[in-house]
């Protein structure tokens, strides 16, 4: 297997494979100083969900309270008091106008160093998520598919998936799989995402079409598994068949114990992956929460029909 030293860019592979270590200076940015936590309690409230998931009294998986965040470089505020509760077995969709803060929100969940938390709290599986390093979040089952998957020249897709898989297993104290065993493990999974086998031997995402990149993201999810799968615009650039394949693979992973948090602009994805809740984000806050009917109104009448302002 090719040896590969990952760079520090924060992307699907470096995050989900837990192969990277952030420098100490960057780690500090993802922590929330105590004084700011106190100040956050004064933040304006926005809707949160509290119902139970499929099958009754589902456990809390993720609880976001009054979360605020700024861009690390410029200190420009982006998130301004986000509240969200995700229970096991639930599928949550976040919609909202371009620039409303959706991607920032999910990137903050995985500890992206571009953002600094300025207030609020995030609890994941009963733990303070903001005290966890990004790689600890990945090991704890938080998977993220990024909006723009990166290319990694010089590293074959199967080698990278094998390394990501083994990195996760090492952290969990489980035995690693060699290349041949791993091929046996991954080959049947290709069918789940309807992906051509030759894409395994190509360099990661290099020259992949937009749709192939998205299928590859979902393949990674299928390979690694997740308790909370975060999918940022997984439907963008997909033709209708690819959308169906991707949705089928995601649905195939859903159990009463795991959850999905997905960002989308389109009703069509929600018709394939049925959401428990749809949230509308506006100006860095969730301003409305409801069911699929919200997306139907949105599709017909646009954001003016459901705007919080
Ligand atoms: N790293 C960054 N540097 C500078 N500006 C940023 C950065 N990250 C986010 N922003 C800005 O914060 C705002 C929210 O961006 P974000 O990507 O979260 O929006 P979004 O709701 O996901 O939009 P879209 O629907 O277009 O993907 C935008 O104005 C964006 O330009």
TrEMBL record:
PROSITE patterns: ABC_TRANSPORTER_1, ABC_TRANSPORTER_2. Pfam families: ABC_tran (PF00005). SUPFAM superfamilies: P-loop containing nucleoside triphosphate hydrolases (SSF52540). GO terms for biological process: embryo development ending in seed dormancy; thylakoid membrane organization. GO terms for molecular function: ATP binding; ATP hydrolysis activity; ATPase-coupled transmembrane transporter activity. Gene3D superfamilies: P-loop containing nucleotide triphosphate hydrolases (3.40.50.300). Keywords: ATP-binding, Nucleotide-binding. Residues 62-308 form the ABC transporter domain. The keyword ATP-binding applies. The keyword Ligase does not apply. GO terms for cellular component: chloroplast. NCBIfam families: sufC (TIGR01978). This is ABC transporter I family member 6, chloroplastic. It comes from Olea europaea subsp. europaea.
């Amino acid at each position: 297997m090719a040896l590969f030293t990952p760079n520090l860019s924060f992307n699907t592979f470096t995050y989900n494979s837990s192969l990277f270590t952030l420098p100490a200076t960057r780690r500090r940015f993802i922590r929330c100083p105590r004084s700011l936590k106190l100040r956050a309690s004064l933040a304006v409230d926005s809707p949160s969900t509290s119902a139970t998931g499929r099958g009754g009294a589902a456990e809390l998986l993720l609880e976001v309270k009054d979360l605020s965040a700024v861009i690390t470089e410029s200190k420009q505020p982006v998130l301004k008091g986000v509240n969200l509760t995700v229970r096991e077995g639930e599928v949550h969709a976040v919609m909202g106008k371009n620039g409303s803060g959706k991607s920032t929100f999910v990137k903050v969940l995985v500890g992206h160093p571009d953002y600094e938390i300025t207030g609020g709290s995030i609890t994941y599986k009963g733990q303070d998520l903001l005290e966890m390093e990004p790689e600890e979040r990945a090991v704890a089952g938080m998977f993220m598919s990024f909006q723009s998957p990166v290319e990694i020249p010089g590293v074959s897709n199967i080698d990278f998936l094998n390394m990501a898989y083994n990195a996760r297993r090492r952290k969990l104290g489980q035995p690693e799989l060699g290349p041949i065993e791993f091929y046996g493990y991954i080959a049947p999974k290709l069918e789940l995402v309807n992906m051509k086998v030759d894409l395994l031997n190509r360099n990661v995402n290099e020259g992949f079409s937009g749709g192939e990149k998205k299928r590859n993201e979902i393949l990674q999810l299928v390979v690694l598994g997740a308790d909370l799968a975060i999918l940022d615009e997984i439907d963008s650039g997909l033709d209708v068949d690819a959308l169906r394949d991707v949705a089928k693979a995601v649905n195939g992973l859903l159990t009463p114990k795991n959850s999905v948090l997905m960002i989308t602009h389109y009703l069509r994805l929600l018709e394939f992956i049925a959401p428990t809740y749809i949230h509308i984000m506006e100006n860095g806050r969730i301003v409305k929460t409801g069911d699929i009917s919200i997306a139907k109104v949105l599709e017909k009448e646009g954001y003016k029909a459901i705007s919080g302002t």
